[in-house]
Amino acid sequence: MSLTSMPFDRRLKRIVRNHQRMSHGVVHSVNSNGLIVARPRIYNPKFPIKGLLLTVAAMFVFKGFLFASLGAETFNARLAELAAGSTVDKAGAWVMQADTATVAIAGVWQKIGV
Q1: Which residues contact 86 (CB under 8 A, 6 or more apart)?
Q2: Of 54, 52, 74, nearest to 66 (Cα)?
């Protein structure tokens, strides 16, 4: 066997690492000898990064739509009213402030004809 020439500590590290990876789940398969082999399942993070990015993009599109449909003056006036409110209102005003992405998306909405 080729594994017997490997030092004991290296074999032990490989076994422990494989065991830790198998704690996330295993996939069983049959190899060419008919032996059932358990391999670690590919770990996918539980946090949906793609969903978070899509939500942020949708929020920017919504801000751009509001900016295009209300106009810059009305939009800024409503933000000023929102900034005069409570702490939650101030946070909302900070999130909804017109930035470069919002203005660019609003330009696209205006070209579409909103």
Answers
A1: none
A2: 74
